[in-house]
Amino acid sequence: MELNTCSRCGAFFTSNGVVCPNCEAQERLELSKLKDYLAENNVTTTSIEQISCSTGISEKNVTRFLSQGIIEM
Known about the structure:
This protein has helices at about 25-40, 50-55, 60-65; strands spanning about 5, 10-15. The chain is mainly alpha-helical. It has a two-stranded antiparallel ribbon. β1 (about 5) and β2 form a beta hairpin.
């Protein structure tokens, strides 16, 4: 296993994921919330700031989900 840095909290951990074990549950919750929001709303005219305000997910994490290809608009 490799030593990785958590994308959410910056902690070091050994695993194959992008987030540490402590952040996994929050990561899944936010991904689910974001997927639901994008499915229910017209996102072609929505900014990352608007998505963040509507979902409670930080702009940093919305941007990270999009840039890593985890979620597509």
